[in-house]
């Protein structure tokens, strides 16, 4: 990709997104979610979107509102059901949004495959389960494996910690999650960062996303993010938690 | 096992005792993933000097316990999206690398919760099968099949008294033949191609377990029934 | 093109002039991979203010020129295993990530040498087909098919005077239909599904080229023959 | 893998290698080659080895000598032919060593796949060429792709710059090359490093190979390495260079 552009607002960085576009949105819940870029996408107005993201929004966060406002035709994700994913729940139950449920590791690897020019791969994950129904499979070296295809996107929205002047990115802790692979998988990648530093200020050995994967950067010093609950366990979500309710 | 007093063996295990029992089987220096929910309790029973490193599939090795109030970092969370801390020797990586670590068989032990486990080691822990539920899977399938050793930690019966160790899972599967051991409040079982074997009982007997579960259970290796 | 004076167009290009001609077509801000051998000369003709970043497939973006004598770092080499330097904004990555960058279509331009290129853009640049040769391919195939735009830089004729732009490659292929433009000492050609078109000639004519190559060549886009 | 062991010699770190084992050896030419570990492998004595390495030795370096001494039954590599690869050349021509030639990117991706638990993948590289003959292929999203399988190994020998007390590794510049993916692809991975630092001394954001992939580390402060030619171009090697000899 050609040189990274530095934008003065999230909306400028976002640029044009067509109706029906496939948009990858980074983050694992609130950690690493590019909240301001998703707000810009809300403002920008594109609809009929296919959104690829691990979760389907929490509470009233921007991704949840994007779904609430009927802008998302389909979600490709691994864990849409959370304690506070009411907007997705309602849209899904009403049939307003389609869901492609993908095991998290297969989702990650399919996104990586797109960025890496790999058309498809065989993975053991999901074999023999409902999520592999209808999918091609074969036994390789004694292990049954399912064929999974690359997921490409038109636009990726990610949040990083810092960018340098050529668009190299570094992240913070577990907020790294989907950012690096999504930035590589989309035709156009947009990063919101806390800080833009001069070229040469990032250690070349520690760059996580080389600038080649980054088309636009916007510096947003005041990154809002949904509050993380401060007590371990209270935000424990989903099937396994529910499954263990009956214990002892 | 050594962490449990003999009294514990004479009655069903509490959640904490069960967590200690699971922890006692984890070798020092192991890399371990603890599934969300009940398995997270195991962390409290790992000796700090054991050198055991915790993996969280959202992109970290060397995960530490919950932070002190006021020290919460929204960029540092576990797979349940709860805040955690970083221990010395930690490392961060992206999602594809994190699941490569799981799928590639590098995690020594993964401890998961379950709705059902079959005597052959099939696991059902991601879907209740309710037709109106919003489906969600997360990393459950990758965790179940990726680790060198996947064990389950659960109550042996549902709240309604139905067995969760079963001949054949009736709920949607997470993985086929992936579980090797099942730790429950009433007993520890080995499961696999040869069926279920009782390793240890807590306040019950082999014969009572067979009646409770309506299963034929083999004896622990090296024991006769 | 602007880097060449008009005199150059009246005679075959020297290696340096050819390198300048290739460089003139590379947009500022591009990410570029220069194959080993002749294409490395292109680096000398890229304006330092152009913001062009060089990729070397052994694991680096932001590769700089050869070091001063005495400043050689054995850990910092290019794909030809010759020592290079690091420019500000550089980054390092492992081999799988480096070839993902190539294969995934992220490199804007890749400049390669060739034994033969066909009018449809097939490339042969890794094997002379000699039966007794030790085969070796390196990154040639990944480079040929991975970049957004793969161009070839070569002499139009072999030392023995045989054409290297051909109807159909007779040497083992590196990639099928992967080349879009061919820069030579005598002319620049576009190649692809519609066959070969002459873009520019150096000291020769369209008609002479057709005779030399025994090919039917289309005119440059927007020109009649 | 369980906790990393710190050995006092390369031979101790190497441990037991069985005859017929598959051994991955890091490095791109001399850069990143774990020379002392390969010397240890020479001493250790295993034969009939399958060696996976990008090159097949330079001059009299340890890998070249391993081949010279008839210890290698098969090489899996992308570029065995170099100006100074005379030991491989001789062994290959005499039929003493078998060669599986793999395009460099497919070699890297096949090694990564092994570490990542991916059985096989479809890649466009090599389609329509002699190196894809006999391989399964299919068209995915309009691109012809070849099915390539994971390459596993019994042992990986890599060179890193520093290790911390739990085996986390960082590399130096382009010497990183195959180290990270080979360390993940082998049942047992051994790293020689210039320096072992205390736990906590490496930035967790900049760890390249987490210790989970490293079984043994040996600190070798005096790392010998084959001299790199000091003039760009003189070590230019192989087909493309030869192909351009005729120019102008």
Walkthrough of the structure:
The complex is a heterotetramer, with two copies of chain A (248 residues) and two copies of chain B (225 residues). With 248 residues, chain A is α/β, with parallel strands linked by helices. Chain A contains seven helices and twelve strands. In chain A, helix 2 runs parallel beside helix 3, helix 3 runs parallel beside helix 4 and helix 5 packs across helix 6. The radius of gyration of chain A is 18 Å and the shape is globular. The termini of chain A are far apart. Chain B has a single domain, classed as Glutaconate Coenzyme A-transferase (3-Layer(aba) Sandwich), CATH 3.40.1080. Chain B has five helices and twelve strands. In chain B, helix 3 packs parallel to helix 4. Chain B is globular, with a radius of gyration of 18 Å. Chains in contact: A-B, A-C, A-D, B-D, C-D. At the C-D interface, helix 3 and helix 4 of C face helix 4, helix 5, helix 6 and helix 7 of D. Strand 6 of chain A pairs antiparallel with strand 6 of chain D, so a sheet runs across the interface. Chains A, D: Keywords: Transferase.
Outline of the structure:
Chain A has 248 residues and is an alpha/beta fold.
Second-tier CATH architecture of chain A: 3-Layer(aba) Sandwich
- SSE order of chain A, as H and E? EHEHEHEHEHEEEEEHEEH
Quaternary organization: heterotetramer
Whole-number count of domains of chain A? 1
Q: How many E strands of chain A? A: 12
Distance between the termini of chain A: 56 Å
Assign the CATH topology of chain B.
Answer: Glutaconate Coenzyme A-transferase
How many domain units of chain B?
1
Summed up, the helix count of chain A is 7
**Describe the biggest sheet of chain A?**
9 strands, mixed
Radius of gyration of chain B (Å): 18 Å
